[in-house]
Write a structure and sequence with these properties.
- The chain is mainly beta and 167 residues long.
- 12% of the residues lie in helices and 51% in strands.
- Strands 1, 2, 3, 4, 5, 6 and 7 form a seven-stranded antiparallel sheet that branches.
- A hairpin with a 5-residue loop joins strand 9 and strand 10.
- It has one domain.
- The structure holds 2-acetamido-2-deoxy-beta-D-glucopyranose (2 copies).
- One 2-acetamido-2-deoxy-beta-D-glucopyranose binds next to loops.
- The site of one 2-acetamido-2-deoxy-beta-D-glucopyranose (NAG) has 2 residues, from loops.
Length: 167
């Protein structure tokens, strides 16, 4: 490898390390009782008028983007039902943007917030459910045309949604 090329590879490695170590956003371990004042990124509001938060849960070696509710737990869509966890992670970020999208589009700049065991990246999406009047967050993957939301042990599918971008 020529010297300039080596130097470039090294800088790339350093940039990646810097982003991971000193990046302004962070996923932190969370439990339901500590959630409300944790500073986690809010996803919406639930039927109890309490905020819901962007979360990710571990299930069968998958990392699934989902939603957390104070004092209750976190949920994610898994196949056509939902999984609930008492231990999960929430996102702490300086800047969050929700970009409207539809029919499977994942806006440029969206970072994966989860991954299936087979390596397929997952992104955080949210929808306004007009029947329940709630803003819920769930997951979407490339090649899927809908945002999947965990709801009463089913996965509800929405073709119109927003995708989360964060810094
Ligand atoms: C990866 O796994 C997910 C969930 O089981 C599935 O929907 C998707 O089609 C798989 N992708 C590939 C490339 O196998
Ligand atoms: C949710 O549905 C799955 C699949 O049908 C089932 O195995 C599980 O027990 C259900 N969970 C609850 C809390 O009802």
């Amino acid at each position: 490898m020529a010297l300039p090329e080596m130097w470039r590879s090294l800088s790339i490695v350093l940039v990646v390390v810097a982003q991971q170590t000193w990046g302004r956003s962070n996923w932190i371990a969370m439990t339901p009782s500590r959630l409300l004042d944790s500073g986690a990124v809010q996803a919406g509001v639930f039927t109890d008028n309490l905020p819901t938060f962007v979360a990710r849960v571990w299930h069968d070696n998958n990392i699934l983007p989902g939603i957390a509710r104070p004092n209750v737990g976190a949920w994610a869509s898994w196949q056509d039902y939902e999984v609930k966890k008492e231990n999960f992670e929430v996102l702490i970020a300086d800047e969050v943007t929700w970009i409207p999208a539809a029919n499977g589009v994942i806006p440029l700049g969206a970072q994966p917030t989860g991954v299936y065991l087979n390596g397929t990246d997952l992104y955080t999406c949210r929808v306004l459910d007009e029947t329940a009047f709630i803003l819920e967050s769930g997951l979407i993957m490339k090649g899927q045309t809908v945002c999947s939301i965990p709801w009463q042990n089913r996965t509800a599918l929405y073709p119109v949604y927003e995708v989360m971008l964060y810094k």
